[in-house]
Amino acid sequence: MKINVRIKYFLVHEITGKKSEDIELEAGTTLGELLQELVKRHGKELGKLMFSPDGKPGNHLRIFFNGRMVDEEMLEQEIEEDSEVNIFMAIIGG
Amino acid sequence: MKILQIDLDQGEVKEEKLAAEFKTSGGRLLTLSFLLDLPGDLDPLSSEAPLIFATGPLAGSGVTCSHRLSAGGKSPLTGGIKESNSGGMVAYHLARLGYRALLIKGANQDGDMVIRVEPEKVHLERREKYRELGNYDLLEEIRKEYGADYSVISIGPAGENGLLSSGIAITDPLGLPNRFAARGGLGAVMGSKGVKAILISAKGKQRFEPQSKGEFQSAQKEFNRIVRENPRIEVLQKYGTASTVSMVNQLGALPTRNFSQGTFAGAEKIDGEHMYKLITQRGGGTPTESCMPGCIIQCSNVFPGPDGKRIVGPIEYETLGLLGSNLDIDCLDTIAHLNYLCNDLGLDTIEVGCSLGVATEAGLVSYGDGKAYGELIEEMGKNTVLGRVLGQGAFLAGQVLGVKRVPVAKRQGISAYDPRGVKGTGVTYATSPMGADHTAGLTVFAPVEHGKKDGQLELSRRMQLVRAAYDALGLCAFLLGATGPHPDKAVALINAAYGKEHGADYLEKLGAQVIAGELKFNEKAGFTPANDCLPEFFYKEKLPPYDLTFDLSREETGSLFEDLRKDS
Ligand code: SF4
């Protein structure tokens, strides 16, 4: 079975070339696998922003999965139909 | 380096040598040092209350973002200590004249004093014709009369009329009064001294001479490299602090409709991307500008109207939150106009945004009505009864208007992070000796779950200490996203400049020293740990959409600085 997920990029579109994209995934795909897929599609630069050298998510990006900020533990979560993934450049504050 | 002291009661000007203990610090620590021994019941608007402007020890050097200016005094808004921090040209010019600080005591009863600091002499002059002028017209007049070779510290009518929402304007590199030591009502302190403007000559010749030139150059190169290579800095440069809007909205912490909601339907219309698009499409403005010499981040912007003419610049995140989402305004042109009015009248956009949110809740105006909000801000400038009620800040406006949901901590309006959605920043609002201040230690850029209480006390404390240290060094806080993880690099600059051997923990110690002193000041002024909390509604009202409350107890926040209170 296939599921669809929409990824939205905030201030990251210069790397991804787009502000959002819809991706079709196999049911059972985990969030970690999805993020690796995004790195494969958009290149190492996105990978460096996304993961710190020890592999933890959230180096320079903040990733939200259904409204929750993604931490290491959440990478094992399975993605369900209509899940929302929003990816932001980690801001400095204002 | 010297301290310039001006006594307006006596009409006296004198210079003092900078005390040795301030060789490697200044800014927020130095302003504090002039306030610590004053009586606890000091009236902040009396002639005995000093107003101080101080630079950091790297001012005048070429180090990026090293010319922040600390304005310090007793806050008439909170009744506690206040350091309000600004960019602009003044710190650089003070350093070129050989001053680490400028201290003003006493008062001119006529309210029309212009202080002009030249390399050889300080002039105390009266200019009746400047009274009641807005900051923009004032600067125009000053340029006509004195020429363009000055940076200027000034107040608008709000400061002259003693409004507690008034700030102090500082000129930017174009000579416009666009930078603000906005918070805590220091504009009213300057107004109470009868000083309308302070002109700092750009003709100072003092050079920054590091003790070890070679070491300083390599420390500077390394510091700049870390800043330049950080991908987040690139984003800040292009989109400014407005880049913060979307993520805070995602966190459910963007103040909306007087802090009754955490997400704003119009967020994408006021965020950094949209602002960038409008600025570049319209022409006549710029998305990227520096507020001081040598800054390689250049986070500022100039926002033009549809006709390509400058409305105001910069529009900052805090203004977008408080004069935008908090008032249900999703139009950047309207926000720019309200921002311009505040700058011209000399008002703090955060305090005004909080106060207008309270006024809306009281039914004086409807959410989203930009025209009516503009008229209310103009009332503040005219000093009408209504203008005074709203211009005295959100706390007093709430009391007069009988509104319960009043977003303040220590009577100061809360900046654009709802404390229920960014709890670390909520801890900062509750515990900072400054009250709810966006410059006291933001936590939103840390990779933590901001809606959960775990770890937020420690995070807030860490950020408050490092921020206090940066303020005492005159460094811009926007460096922290890049240089925060490398405290040794900032310390290397100080060591090379002054021949010291401070360890990497120097920043932490400096930050602790600042906050301990500020706590001591506040204690004398009557504050206790019981004041380190937020208004009731943040603990009780669930913030949509994530139904968050502020669930750190008053005991937890009240004991955050227990050790520093003991030390002080
Ligand atoms: S980063 Fe922004 S606020 Fe800081 S010094 Fe540069 S322009 Fe000014």
Topology, pairings included?
The complex is a heterodimer of chains A (94) and B (568).
Chain A: E1 2-10, H1 13-16, E2 20-26, H2 31-42, H3 44-50, E3 61-65, E4 68-69, E5 84-89
Parallel strand pairs in A: 1-5
Antiparallel strand pairs in A: 1-2, 3-4, 3-5
Chain B: E1 2-7, E2 12-17, H1 27-33, E3 51-54, E4 69-74, E5 81-86, H2 90-96, E6 99-105, E7 113-117, E8 122-126, H3 135-146, E9 150-154, H4 157-160, E10 168-170, E11 179-181, H5 186-192, E12 195-201, H6 213-228, H7 231-239, H8 245-250, H9 272-282, E13 286-289, E14 300-304, E15 310-312, H10 317-322, H11 332-345, H12 349-361, H13 370-382, H14 385-391, H15 394-401, E16 408-409, E17 412-413, H16 423-431, H17 456-473, H18 480-483, H19 487-498, H20 506-524, H21 536-540, H22 554-558, H23 562-567
Parallel strand pairs in B: 1-6, 7-12
Antiparallel strand pairs in B: 1-2, 3-4, 3-6, 4-5, 7-8, 9-10, 9-12, 10-11, 13-14, 14-15, 16-17
Helix pairs in contact in B: 1-17, 1-20, 6-19, 11-13, 12-15, 13-14, 16-17, 17-20
The complex binds iron/sulfur cluster.
Residues 65, 87, 290-292, 295, 297-300, 476, 478 of chain B line the site of iron/sulfur cluster (SF4).
Descriptive overview:
The complex is a heterodimer of chains A (about 90) and B (about 575). Chain A has one domain (about 1-90): Beta-grasp domain (Ubiquitin-like (UB roll)). Chain A is built from 3 helices and 5 strands, in the order E-H-E-H-H-E-E-E. By secondary structure, chain A is an alpha+beta fold. In chain A, strands 2-1-5-3-4 form a 5-stranded mixed β-sheet, with no helix packed on it. Chain A has helices at about 15, 30-40, 45-50, and strands at about 1-10, 20-25, 60-65, 70, 85-90. In chain A, helix 2 (about 30-40) crosses helix 3. By secondary structure, chain B is an alpha+beta fold. Chain B is built from 23 helices and 17 strands. Chain B has helices at about 25-35, 90-95, 135-145, 155-160, 185-190, 215-230, 230-240, 245-250, 270-280, 315-320, 330-345, 350-360, 370-380, 385-390, 395-400, 425-430, 455-475, 480-485, 485-500, 505-525, 535-540, 555-560, 560-565; strands spanning about 1-5, 10-15, 50-55, 70-75, 80-85, 100-105, 115, 120-125, 150-155, 170, 180, 195-200, 285-290, 300-305, 310, 410, 410-415. In chain B, helix 17 (about 455-475) crosses helix 20 (about 505-525). The model of chain B has no long low-confidence stretch (mean pLDDT about 95). The chains are: A alpha+beta (about 90), B alpha+beta (about 575). Bound molecules: iron/sulfur cluster. Iron/sulfur cluster binds near residues 65, 290 and 476 of chain B.
